[in-house]
Amino acid sequence: MSQVEEPRANSKSGSRSTVVVSLAALGSVIAASSCCLPLLPFIFAAGAAGTSAFIAQLRPYLLVLSVLLIAFGFYKSWRAKQCNCKPGRISTFILWFSAIVVFVVIFFPQVIANMVADLLAGKS
Questions:
Q1: Among 22, 37, 73, 113, which is least packed by CB within 10 angstroms?
Q2: In this structure, is the dihedral angle defined by the CA atoms of residues 44, 46, 47 and 52, taken in order, positive or negative?
Q3: Neighbours of 79 (CB within 10 A)
């Protein structure tokens, strides 16, 4: 009897989904931290306070979403290795970079806020 081989997953689609998950995690952590670090404060000064107040209420959910998306990204990367598909260097780098950013934002939000405030004030 002949065995029927299952088609292997396309390594590009696995790599692409890992990149999308990593970028989604970065997006959610940026949204979560926007309560403390309004983006482009000089352009959106009028709406930043209202947006920050609204997003501050969503911060715990956005941080949980970030952690879940990072975990899903690592699962997809691990799963790709199980299917004999090697994840690309860029997707692996983005996944690890996203994980580090999420970790830093979750555990050191005030340090980041102080660094950005000093940067915007022109201090070295």
A1: 113
A2: positive
A3: 15
pLDDT at 114: 85
Structure tokens at 2: 């002949």
**What is the SS3 assignment for 35-52?**
CCCCCCCCCCHHHHHHHH
Tokens in use for 109?
A: 């939000």
94: left (phi over 0), alpha (psi -120 to 50) or beta: alpha
Query: Which run of H or E residues covers position 89?
Result: helix 89-107
The span from the CA of 32 to the CA of 34, in Å, is 6
User: 26-71, pLDDT tens digit by residue?
Assistant: 777 777 766 665 555 555 565 666 777 777 788 889 889 999 999 9
Residue 101: inside a domain: yes
Query: What tokens does 66 get?
Result: 């970030």
Residue 5 in 3-state DSSP?
coil
> Residue 4: inside a domain, yes or no?
no
User: Is residue 6 situated within a structural domain?
Assistant: no
Q: How many domains does the chain have?
A: 1
**pTM across the whole model:** 0.56
